[in-house]
Amino acid sequence: MSNTSNFRNAIRDAKNQALVGPNVIANALPYVGGGLVLTALGTYGGLGVIRNNPQLFYPTFFGALIVSLILFFVAQNVASKGNKQVALPLLAAYSLLSGYTLSGLVFVALRTQGVGIEGIGIAALGCGVTFIAARQIGSNLSDSDGMALTKTVRLGVIALIAVMILQLGLSLFGVYTPGWLEIGISGLGVCLFAGAAVVDFYVLPRTYQDDEYLPAALSMYLTYINLFVFILRLLIAISGGGRD
Question: How far separated are the first and last CA of the chain, in Å rounded?
Fold first, then answer.
């Protein structure tokens, strides 16, 4: 769950450069949308496994998580080299598996009083509103503001990943995050990935040419998937864990 993979190169390439791909985001959007549709299908399939064969879900979840991480790095590498015929099926498979790994969170949301299908809709709507706002803000950032925001978001996401790894490690020993802390972590994640959405509109046209839309699409996909996840986590924490 990270959008930092391209940040280092993106910062270096974007600094003090004019737009090299003014239409790269427009070219990437159909692939972002297609990836999100495939993610929804993967989530639906995962929910079916949870309901009909729950004992099968956890082993397949971890398998899907490992394979999706491998696919991410392979697809990113292939897409960056411009091999679209190979990159597209890899990105499609990655999107499906990402949806499967999200199904556990969605299942919890559906069972949490005060969240349910309405909360999932709110999370999706929040991503859409963020896209509209980020497009307006990110496209009009000055170089100084754009670089400052990019570096801030990058550092924040790195810190968030460290916190989540610690959170996961503690949970393996039966130490779970208090509700108020989960609200704080989830709220921070929402803010950071909303910032990452703005960064995308600043960095991507300065990093990728118009025909390099697949790596740009992958970056945007990661931003909105993570934003969706943290909005949903925040809603769950407020409705359930936030009472602790």
Answer: 26
